[in-house]
């Protein structure tokens, strides 16, 4: 199975900050990576797929990059509604696997 | 509007069985891969099973042989039959839809575009 390692597990940030979350795969997955945002008590929502393609309706302050084993999710200017937990997921090898999550908290 | 509505969760004793359902609407159900993803309270996401339009299925080792995913395209419905339930199966179970084909060469992406609101399964005596 492919292990997905996210870091950090949590980050404290202020509105307006730039936030970067990393995700590392235990083996190469090309660009088959997705990112999700989850707020408490809610289902996850897709932000990015194909490592860098923004899902329809997702604000442009979110961006993704990387290929192979190392990936990054960047929030360019943190907004109040962005405080949530973020997960990466490798999307090409069964079993599909997620990273452990990164909680973005208010500083 | 795409809607996925799960049902069938509840309290079940260890060793018992439960069948979850997911009612889909707002898209051509028979054209998409469908999945179940679960989340224990305060924990991360775990993919539980997937099925393609023709009925090919996939499972992780943690549930293989105990869980069975199926679909009834004529009724726009997805199911998860869970047998030999254990305490560590306790979680919210989400139904999720795959993408319209997003492929490069012979490889396609299996990410989750739409999610239901989930149904809680509690395995406890």
Describe the protein.
The complex is a heterodimer of chains A (107) and B (125). Chain A is mainly beta. Chain A has no helices and eleven strands. In chain A, strands 2, 4, 5, 6, 9, 10 and 11 form a seven-stranded mixed β-sheet that branches. A four-stranded antiparallel β-sheet of chain A has the order 1-3-8-7, with no helix packed on it. The radius of gyration of chain A is 13 Å and the shape is globular. In chain B, strands 2, 4, 5, 6, 9, 12 and 13 form a seven-stranded mixed β-sheet that branches. In chain B, strands 1-3-8-7 form a four-stranded antiparallel β-sheet, with no helix packed on it. In chain B, strands 10-11 form a two-stranded antiparallel ribbon. Chain B starts with a strand and ends with a strand. By secondary structure, chain B is an all-beta fold. The chains are: A mainly beta (107), B mainly beta (125). The interface between A and B is medium-sized, with 27 and 26 residues.
How many angstroms does the end-to-end distance of chain A come to? Answer: 36 Å
Helix-strand topology string of chain B: EEEEEEEEEEEEE
Question: Roughly what is the average pLDDT of chain A, rounded to an integer?
Answer: 97
Number of strands of chain B: 13
Overall pLDDT score of chain B = 96
The helix-strand sequence of chain A is: EEEEEEEEEEE
Q: What's the total number of strands of chain A? A: 11
Secondary structure tally, helices of chain A:
0
Count of helices of chain B?
0
CA-to-CA gap between the ends of chain B? Answer: 40 Å
Largest interface: A-B, 27 and 26 residues
Largest sheet of chain B: 7 strands, mixed
Radius of gyration of chain B: 14 Å
Task: Choose one word for the global shape of chain B.
Answer: globular
* Amount of helix of chain A: under 10%
Quaternary structure of the protein: heterodimer
Helix and strand composition category of chain A: mainly beta
Major sheet description of chain A = 7 strands, mixed
């Amino acid at each position: 199975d492919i292990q997905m390692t996210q870091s950090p597990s949590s980050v404290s940030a202020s509105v307006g900050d730039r936030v970067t979350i990393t995700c590392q795969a235990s083996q190469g997955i090309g660009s088959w990576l997705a990112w999700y945002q989850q707020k408490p008590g809610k289902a996850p929502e897709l932000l990015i797929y194909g490592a860098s393609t923004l899902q329809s309706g997702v604000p442009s302050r979110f961006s993704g990059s990387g290929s192979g084993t190392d990936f990054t999710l960047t929030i360019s200017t943190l907004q109040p509604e962005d405080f949530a937990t973020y997960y990466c997921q490798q999307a090409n090898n069964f079993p599909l696997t997620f990273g452990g999550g990164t909680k973005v908290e208010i500083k | 509007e795409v809607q996925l509505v799960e049902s069938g969760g509840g309290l079940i004793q260890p060793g018992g069985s439960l069948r979850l359902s997911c009612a889909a609407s707002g898209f051509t159900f028979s054209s998409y891969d469908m999945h179940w993803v679960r989340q224990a309270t305060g924990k991360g996401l775990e993919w539980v099973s997937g099925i393609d339009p023709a009925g090919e299925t996939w499972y992780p080792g943690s549930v293989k042989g105990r869980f069975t995913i199926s679909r009834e395209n004529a009724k726009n419905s997805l199911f998860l039959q869970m047998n030999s339930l254990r305490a560590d199966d306790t979680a919210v179970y989400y139904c999720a839809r795959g993408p319209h084909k997003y492929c490069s060469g012979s490889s396609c992406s299996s990410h989750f575009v739409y999610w239901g609101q989930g149904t809680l399964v509690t395995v406890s005596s």
